[in-house]
Design goal:
207 residues, mainly alpha, two-stranded antiparallel sheet, 7 helices, globular
């Protein structure tokens, strides 16, 4: 009995790259970045050469090579202050309620977007975001630029920026603990109770 075998040619997959929309960046400390050899400062994809850059943008978040997040913070704060200055022009026409709604849409949404990545940063780094939040609160309450805003933040039920970041992380951890987080997030989280080196720690028994 004969066997007939037909061999089909493998499909050829071609990957096209757009060097104008592709960026290459190395992350590390200042000392580590200085150790990178010159031939690692570019990446060849087909016939295109991708040159190393110091800052990249991903999903609206700006990352610098040392992950200081200073570029991102300054960009967000600048955008928030821009919208605040524009809203100041119509504040007396629309009233505090409409102003609060507009501030929530154009300012607070930017301050809250992906703010969990700012966890652990020094207060001096996130200070521009706090100044933007304070300016937004003064706008709603019609306060002078140098007026204190602590009581206004409480009346608006706004957490300061650093506590908003902590709240976001706590909310994410609660979702992990209650199995409400999506799988692409739960797959990268490990409970401390399952790590052998953490079994003797008090935090190991409390997850």
């Amino acid at each position: 009995m004969g066997v007939s075998v037909t061999i089909f040619p493998q499909p050829r997959i071609e990957v096209e790259s757009n060097p104008l929309k592709t960026e290459l960046i190395w992350f590390g400390s200042c000392a580590s970045l200085r150790k990178i050899a010159d031939n690692d400062l570019s990446l060849r994809v087909g016939g295109d050469v991708i040159i190393l850059v110091d800052v990249v943008r991903d999903l609206g978040v700006i990352f610098d090579s040392q992950l200081t997040m200073q570029w991102h913070v300054n960009k967000v704060a600048s955008a928030c202050l821009h919208h605040i200055r524009r809203l100041e022009q119509i504040r007396r026409l629309v009233g505090p309620e409409v102003t609060g709604t507009l501030v929530s849409a154009f300012v607070l949404s930017k301050l809250d977007y992906c703010n969990a990545i700012l966890a652990g940063l020094p207060k001096s780094t996130i200070a521009p975001l706090q100044r933007a939040q304070n300016a937004a609160a003064r706008l709603i309450a019609c306060l002078a630029p140098r007026d204190h805003v602590t009581s206004t933040l409480r009346q608006l039920h706004w957490l300061p920026v650093q506590f908003c970041i902590k709240y976001k992380l706590c909310l994410l951890m609660h979702q992990f603990h209650t199995s409400r987080a999506p799988s692409y997030l739960t797959d990268i989280v490990t409970r401390t109770a399952t790590i052998s080196s953490r079994l003797r720690l008090r935090s190991g028994s409390s997850d």
